[in-house]
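Figure 3 (text version): structure tokens given as input.
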């Protein structure tokens, strides 16, 4: 992981769960970290904790459904640390879970704005900086829902399928420019999202025992590994953390 030391990573949805764990792990590897989330207070607190532990981090309030806010985060990363090397598009929503006939069009659209547009906005804002230096890594947090149909999850399944397509399209367009793009499907993770899923009582995922969910730290370690050249063979598609071989490569499980 020495190759990551001194690089700069932007992580969205970094106020808790996978995003927070990824920020702390990347900082432990010597990466300059920019934490972005709607809760500016939370990411600022986490950034302060990272800095007090000898790392380098800044926290910024950001709604990824607003392109200007996303662009401001990317520009701040470049201004503060001098480069934009890794982008982790982690911010995502699944609430409200509902069958199509019972869904609220406005709320359904908000999930699309975050889970699809948020990924596009991050990539669009980061690409000029990565292309200027001829390198960069974009990691899009995906899901098994990208290739599955689940009751009550029409918004989530559709948005994750679109994010997978964005991963593939960006890889097709930018691989020749030295920019790596990969998706990560972590499986079920012990975060607030699983609490929301459990409470919904809809589809088999809500019936899973909490003990089967993996810790967010496993996902964080996988994100760190995906940012290295050792994972380059997986560019342009999703990597599943349910895969035992991948777990061995990362060193989790």
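Below: residues designed for each position.
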């Amino acid at each position: 992981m020495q190759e990551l030391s001194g690089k700069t990573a932007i992580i969205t949805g970094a106020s808790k769960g996978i995003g927070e764990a990824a920020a702390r792990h990347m900082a432990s590897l010597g990466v300059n970290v920019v934490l972005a989330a709607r809760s500016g207070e939370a990411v600022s607190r986490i950034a302060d904790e990272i800095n007090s532990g000898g790392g380098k981090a800044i926290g910024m309030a950001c709604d990824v459904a607003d392109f200007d806010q996303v662009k401001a985060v990317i520009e701040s990363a470049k201004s503060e640390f001098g480069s934009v090397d890794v982008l982790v598009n982690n911010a995502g929503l699944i609430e409200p879970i509902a069958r199509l006939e019972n869904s609220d069009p406005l709320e359904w659209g908000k999930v699309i704005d975050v889970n699809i547009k948020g990924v596009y906005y991050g990539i669009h804002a980061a690409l000029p900086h990565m292309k200027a230096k001829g390198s960069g890594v974009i990691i899009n947090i995906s899901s098994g829902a990208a290739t599955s149909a689940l009751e009550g999850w029409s918004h989530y399944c559709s948005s994750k399928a679109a994010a997978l397509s964005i991963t593939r399209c960006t890889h097709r367009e930018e691989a020749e420019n030295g920019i790596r793009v990969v998706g990560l499907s972590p499986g079920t993770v012990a975060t607030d999202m699983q609490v929301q899923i459990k409470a919904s009582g809809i589809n088999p995922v809500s019936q899973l025992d909490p003990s089967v969910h993996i810790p967010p730290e496993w996902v964080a370690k996988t994100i760190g590994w995906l940012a290295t050249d050792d994972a380059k063979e997986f560019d342009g598609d999703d990597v599943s953390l349910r895969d035992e071989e991948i777990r061995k490569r990362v060193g989790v499980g």
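The chain has a mean pLDDT of 96.
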